[in-house]
């Protein structure tokens, strides 16, 4: 009997711990790895009689995806996705970094997605899956990571429904920034000296290469001999 009681208590405790580690707060699902907010795989937008297509999209987020963009630090592996009106988009979100990243989609209808937002978040390396159903409207949705400076540093993209209604600004590799960052040269004596040295080297190296190519090895030796400072006894002659 005692064994049975201990078994029942053990199973109950495991159930409590299990449910606590993956809490479901209404539209939010979170555990120790990340968070899913406002996922929707069943409810149709008002303007959609049915789901038009099922699209599986894998989105990577991380530092290495920004290497192809000058001056950027974070990025998604793609900057644009296109789906049909009323598509069900099944997203696999993969964080390739050891730090926190988000995948937020904005501008969705508020009656289905509170604050018009679909939100995935991973606290470190890992992956998660969630779906959303887009309305029929021809529209471009902002996709970004809202952590401080992550969007400004490149983690910005766009989801186009029915071709979208234009490009959003500052999408790396797609659209120009509204206000471009200026990285002016800090002119000082050292930077001017380096510039002059580079100009000198840029002129001298091709000159010697040309002479050498013309079989003028001896000419080069003569030039260097002329440049050498004369020894004392030479002056005394
Ligand atoms: Cu991020």
How do you describe this structure in short?
The protein is of the alpha+beta class. The chain contains 4 helices and 12 strands.
Layout: helices, strands, pairs:
Layout: H1 2-21, E1 23-25, E2 28-30, E3 34-37, E4 54-62, E5 75-76, E6 80-83, E7 88-95, E8 101-105, E9 118-122, E10 126-133, E11 139-144, E12 156-161, H2 189-213, H3 217-227, H4 232-236
Parallel strand pairs: 4-7, 6-12
Antiparallel strand pairs: 1-2, 2-3, 3-9, 4-5, 7-10, 8-9, 8-11, 11-12
Bound molecules: copper (II) ion.
Residues 74, 101-102, 145, 147, 150, 155 line the site of copper (II) ion.
Describe what this molecule looks like in 3D.
The strands form 2 sheets. Strands 1-2-3-9-8-11-12-6 form an 8-stranded mixed beta sheet. The N and C termini lie far apart (120 Å). The protein folds into 2 domains: 141 residues, Immunoglobulin-like (Sandwich); 40 residues. With 237 residues, the protein is of the alpha+beta class. The structure holds copper (II) ion. The site of copper (II) ion has 7 residues, from strand 8.
Main sheet strand line-up:
1-2-3-9-8-11-12-6
User: Biggest sheet, in brief?
Assistant: 8 strands, mixed
Number of structural domains: 2
Distance between the termini: 120 Å
């Amino acid at each position: 009997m005692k064994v049975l009681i201990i078994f029942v208590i053990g199973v109950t405790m495991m159930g409590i711990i299990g449910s606590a580690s993956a809490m479901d707060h209404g539209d939010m699902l979170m555990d120790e790895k990340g968070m899913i907010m406002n996922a929707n795989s069943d409810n149709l937008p008002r303007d959609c009689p049915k789901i038009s297509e099922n699209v599986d999209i894998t989105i990577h987020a991380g530092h290495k995806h920004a290497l192809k963009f000058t001056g950027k630090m974070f990025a998604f592996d793609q900057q644009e996705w296109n789906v049909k009106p009323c598509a069900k988009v099944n997203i696999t979100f993969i964080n390739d970094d050891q730090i926190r990243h988000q995948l937020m989609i904005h501008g969705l209808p508020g009656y289905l997605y509170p604050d018009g937002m679909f939100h995935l978040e991973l606290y470190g390396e890992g992956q998660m899956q969630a779906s959303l159903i887009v309305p029929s409207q021809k529209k471009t949705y902002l996709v970004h990571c809202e952590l401080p400076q992550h969007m400004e540093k490149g983690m910005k993209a766009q989801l186009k429904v029915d071709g979208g209604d234009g490009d959003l600004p500052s999408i790396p590799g797609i659209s120009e920034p509204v206000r471009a960052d200026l990285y002016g040269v800090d002119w000082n004596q050292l930077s001017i000296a380096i510039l002059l040295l580079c100009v000198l080297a840029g002129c001298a190296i091709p000159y010697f290469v040309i002479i050498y190519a013309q079989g003028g090895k001896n000419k080069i030796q003569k030039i260097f001999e002329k440049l050498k400072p004369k020894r004392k006894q030479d002056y005394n002659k």
